[in-house]
Amino acid sequence: MAATPQAVDTLLHAHWVIPVEPDLTCLEHTSLALRAGRIVDILPTAAARTRYTATETVELPNHALIPGLINAHTHAAMSLFRGLSDDLPLMDWLTKHIWPAEAKWVSAEFVRDGVRLAAAEMLKSGTTCVNDMYFFPEDAAAVLREAGMRACLGLILIDFPTAYAQTPDDYFEKGLKLHDSLRHDPLLSTAFAPHAPYSVSDGPLARIRTVNNELNLPVHMHLHETAHEVSEAAAKTGMRPLARLDALDLLGPTLMAVHMTQLNPAEIARLAEAGASVVHCPESNLKLASGFCPVHALLTAGVNVALGTDGAASNNDLDMLSELRTAALLAKAVSGDATAVPAHTALRMATLNGAKAMGLDTEIGSLRPGKAADITAIDLSALSSQPVYDPVSQIVYTTSREQVTDVWVAGRRLLANRTLTTLDEAAILGRAHAWRDKIK
């Protein structure tokens, strides 16, 4: 006697499923069964059609399903500064253009509108989770909750006063209040986000270490971004920035060190020993001429390397598919090794490695039964992706974000046939145009 089909919320029938773990795995004619926001089964489509009955069934005959992409470093609200000050070196760009613009324009309203624009762009690019660092994170959290995205909100910390806070104590008070408010949120979490070694002094950094002995949050920080940063720190303190963090007992598994273009072999070994993560932002680094992160050497040493776009003011997009392609290609050139960062590794950097850096790898980053149903569907039928011999290689080396058709976060369909379901694209564009006219 045939078994009674089990009820699930959603069945996704795809040509390919790329779960990311186990590594080097690509399943054909495979389905995902989703219930209560989680993956309950991954099985051949023929079996899925008889084993399950679903409230919603989505046929994806030309598509690959991958874990939702994870943008492990960005400043989402800065999408409203996209293209404002291009073709400048980092410190000129930052001190002469971006910081003055922030002082004039950044507010809770600016952050809400900027994050809404960024969330729409990221969802349409296949990104389901973002690790954000910016002012007014409470407002960013509200918008991301409205959008249905998963996010880690940075508890920003910087020595000088801004529109958001006046003193380190003020930043801490607001940050810890936000952390407390999100402790039970199913999609939103927090990280300490000291801006950079040159903008945060030892006292506030030591306080992070003390508070984090209890909270055990990620510590998300720009670090070793340029040769100038490292040489200036060495001249002022007698230590390179990474050594300073080590002396402050901040170099450990919670550290998310962003950029890391200036590293020597001893520092790479120390990062591996400490279990720290590096977040590579190749396109922003290229645009600002910041240098080259030694990704292949880091991975070879056993360091967890994730990917981020940085902000749209220095990239100038939030396109993780573009970022993982650039990361794969750049690693080969920098290392002089064509086998460095193969396609499967690049995809893992953009998914599971980002989840691990944020301490979320038991929840997201790969497609496995029991994990949250954060999923991106990519249509590989486009002329530019044909013929398909290896779907993972096609995703990494040929796919554009226009081929992303559907996105689910915790089983909720946020992008359906290229249309946003939780955000009003026309309204978002209207607010972006209004900010352009005001800032210009």
Which features would summarize this protein structure in a list?
single chain; 440 residues; alpha/beta; eight-stranded mixed β-sheet; four-stranded parallel β-sheet
Written account of the structure:
With 440 residues, the chain is of the alpha/beta class. The chain has 16 helices and 16 strands. The strands form three sheets. The protein has an eight-stranded mixed sheet, covered by helices on one side. It has a four-stranded parallel sheet with strand order 5-6-7-8. Strand 14 and strand 15 (412-416) form a beta hairpin. Helix 3 packs across helix 16 (425-439) and helix 13 (343-349) packs across helix 15 (391-397). 53% of the residues are buried. The mean pLDDT is 97.
Write a brief caption for the model.
By secondary structure, this protein is an alpha/beta fold.
Q: What average pLDDT do the residues reach?
A: 97
Count of DSSP E strands?
16
Tell me the β content: 15-25%
Q: Helix content range of the residues, please?
A: 25-40%
How is this fold's topology laid out?
Blueprint: E1 6-17, E2 27-35, E3 38-44, H1 45-51, E4 52-67, E5 69-74, H2 90-105, H3 108-124, E6 127-132, H4 137-147, E7 150-157, H5 168-182, E8 188-194, H6 202-215, E9 219-223, H7 227-237, H8 241-247, E10 255-259, H9 265-274, E11 277-280, H10 282-287, H11 295-301, E12 304-307, H12 320-335, H13 343-349, H14 352-357, E13 375-379, H15 391-397, E14 404-409, E15 412-416, E16 419-420, H16 425-439
Parallel strand pairs: 1-4, 5-6, 6-7, 7-8, 9-10, 10-11, 11-12
Antiparallel strand pairs: 1-2, 2-3, 4-13, 13-14, 14-15, 15-16
Helix pairs in contact: 3-4, 3-16, 12-13, 13-15
